[in-house]
Structures are given as structure tokens and as C-alpha cells.
Amino acid sequence: MKTLNNMNSKDITVIVPVHDVSGNFNEWFTKAITSMAQAVVKPGKILVVAADNDEVKTFMEKWEKPSDLPMIQIAYNDGDTSFCGQINFGVENCESEFFSILESDDEYSNIWFKQFDEYVKHYEEVDIFLPLVVDTDEKGQFIGFTNEALWAMGFSEDLGYLDNNTLLRYQNFQVSGMIMKTSKFEEIGGMKSSMKLTFNYEFLLRATYNDTVIMTIPKVGYKHTNQRMNSLFWDYKFNQDLRLSPDEAKFWVDTAKQEYFFTMDREVVFES
């Protein structure tokens, strides 16, 4: 008989994108992976999607996989290694019914996969289960919650569910940590690498436009490190070479609202 801390949710593959191992990456990555080792119910498979370059390969070759997570596999991606490209590559190599996304500096709560197992039995029509997300800064200080708004009375069309009209007036939702049907992700075209700032937002707009059923499970399932130094969104805000102007930031929000009608990535470019 399996004990609670030795159970697997076999129908889930966790995709962990890795494209830059500089700085204190090892510390963050270890915390992220350890969060799955501590889970009451573990995912069936963990797929680390690693950029196919010398620095990342060297790190991965030296990295010791935790003995209590034998389901970890590493796949090297020599194509588009943006966040969206890594997720798309991971899903292409996913054989499970569901997948989830774990950023390498984030953590799952120890009950998230157990909560999913309980909810999916009763809500078979749901395509995406969102967790309540705890947002923290780089030092672990609490900032706020994300995805919780769907449980505010009158916020969305149906309590707990995300719809297209709600997204058009409110965009602050987090897809990392979500558990999604693999077939639905493929059906709506995956994630768009060209959506520089608002790829999460455009993805959710496109999902709801294509009748994807999205529900937030009212339990904390994920901890997100917000704007860690040298992370993507930190670069967009603070990196002198990569930060976005207010005009470009607005452009990407407006573009998301125009591009979600198309399943293909039309590779829109901002022109200053």
C-alpha cells in the first residue's frame, strides 16, 4: 500500500524550462525541484527542458538528480529557447494527459497535485486548473496573491472560472503552476514566442476565445518569485539594454488583444 508521500499523479508531466544557469541559479533550481520531492502527491514525470548550449549542458551533467524523484528526465532543446519556446518543446515531448509549468525559481505547495487529483474527479470538463499563487520578492517577502480574484463575487461571469470578457478588462493572471490538458494546449496553438511582454495574457485570451474551460482551485498551490534580478520580467523593467519603454509595454498589451484570434504566431514586432 502506498503512503501519502509516495503517491504519484501519473497523468501529469511537470515542465521545467532552463535556458540560463548563471548567478545563483543552482540555489533557486534546487528549491524548485525540492518542492516536488516534498509534495504529498508527486507528478508522474518531471521534464527539465534545457537549452542546448555548453553552459547549461555542463550544469546539467554535474547536477545530481534527487534520489526520491526518479521520474526526472532532461531534454535538450536546440531550437527556440525562449520561455514560450521551451514550454512548446516540452509539450511536444509530453505523453501525459496533463502538464504543468514550474519556473526554475518558483515552488509548488506540497498539496497542489493532491488538490488537482481531488478536483479533476468532479470537474472533468475543466481544461486548465489554476492555483492560487503566492507572490514574493527575491528575499521571500510576501507581495500578494494572483488568480484569487476569480473567487470574488461578481468578478467573473461564473464564480471561480476565467472567461474572455473578464480577461479583456483585467489581465493579472499567472499560468505557471497551472495544470492543463495537453491536447487542449496543442489544439489552441501553444504559446507565442513573439509576444514579448504579454505571452501569458495572450495565451489566456486565446484559450478562453477557443472555449477552454479555466478554473481556479481555491487553494494555495504555487509560490512565484516576482522580478528576481536578471529574470525575464526584471530585465524588461530594469535592464538598461532590455527594458521596455511605456509605449512598448502598452503596445504588447494592445497586441495581445488583437492576436488572440489567431492560433498561429504571426511574429509581430514592435517598431519604435
What would you note in describing this structure?
The chain is α/β, with parallel strands linked by helices. The chain has one domain (9-259): Spore Coat Polysaccharide Biosynthesis Protein SpsA, Chain A. It is 32% helix and 24% strand. The chain has nine helices and ten strands. It has helices at 25-37, 54-62, 83-92, 112-122, 164-169, 182-187, 199-209, 232-238, 246-259, and strands spanning 7-18, 41-51, 72-77, 98-101, 107-108, 128-136, 142-146, 161-162, 179-181, 214-225. Strands 1, 2, 3, 4, 5, 6, 7, 8, 9 and 10 form a ten-stranded mixed beta sheet that branches. The radius of gyration is 18 Å and the shape is globular. The chain starts with 6 loop residues before the first strand and ends in a 13-residue tail after the last helix. Residues 1-6 have low confidence and may be disordered.
Write the layout of secondary structure elements.
Layout: E1 7-18, H1 25-37, E2 41-51, H2 54-62, E3 72-77, H3 83-92, E4 98-101, E5 107-108, H4 112-122, E6 128-136, E7 142-146, E8 161-162, H5 164-169, E9 179-181, H6 182-187, H7 199-209, E10 214-225, H8 232-238, H9 246-259
Parallel strand pairs: 1-2, 1-4, 2-3, 6-10
Antiparallel strand pairs: 4-9, 5-10, 6-7, 6-9, 8-10
Order of helices and strands: EHEHEHEEHEEEHEHHEHH
Residue-averaged pLDDT, rounded? Answer: 92
User: Structural class, from secondary structure content?
Assistant: alpha/beta
Radius of gyration: 18 Å
CATH class designation: Alpha Beta
